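Good morning C.,

I know you're traveling, so I'll keep this short. The sequence:
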Amino acid sequence: MRRLLAALICLIFSGLFPGAGPVYGGLVFKGEVQVAGDYITVSHLADLPQELAQKCGSAPIWSAPPPGEVYTLTQAFLRYRLEELGLADFLEGVELPALIQVRQTGVPLKGEDVAATFRRYVQEHSPYPPNNLNIEVSPLKEVVILPDPQITLAPVPPHNGKLVGDVTLEMVILHQGQPVKRLKVSGMVRLKRLVVCATKPVQAQSIIAPGDVQVVSREVSGNIDDFFISTEQVVGRILARSVGPQEILTTRHLSNQPIIKRGDNVTVVLDQDGMEISTKGVAQEQGYAGKYIRLLNSRSKKEIQGLVLDAKTVKVQL
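The tokens, ready to paste straight into the viewer:
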């Protein structure tokens, strides 16, 4: 990947320096070079006059070696790369060494530092207690070389504000207060919280009964708004899909079908100051659990409004 990136950058530089102008015959290339970074540039290989350094000093010759390794640039390869960059005139009167050995003096970014920064940012910006968060940070996909270990990692707030589930943070690497590189760090954040789970297998199109569900402490990683924290939120609703024992119920499990249809006969619980009396009624419209519907009292023939408790029961507060 690094070599491919270097090649792409080289293509960008290609042709930018046609007719380099003055001949720098007094230049001497070094036999051994030390670099601190991702690329070997022209300025690494020779001490350039200011004019030439500004013009082509940053042109990449090749990707830099990893820490502890040595790359050897041959005369033929170096001549080829300089000509490819449009610096043929640069070679006039310049004696290239047979070999140039390049060592990496930079240090790799520590994965544990990145992981610690990721965890600290999530814990400090999440609305949930840190002890309720289980954070797993993915390893970096490639080695990041730094000039020295004295750097600061500055996370950028995610655009979507998402800090649970699959989380990606962009981090700016600062060296002496100046940004030197950006990288994206991914991780999985699970939240331990109370959620509604099934107590036993329940088939699709069944109406959820009180004994079908319970509230337990579990780790979740999806959209927090998709989960339920009270059995009252699901009892009386229709399942759109089957659930197994201990399976967490989400909004995707529930059907949008009404549990009471217009014309259904229902039990009407009349509640007055805690005293309840049951009677019969007929639904005048379709009803959903936890919603109010219009009813016709079978005895008085009067229309009343009640709260749907389940597929057969509506409660009226007098």
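Safe travels,
E.
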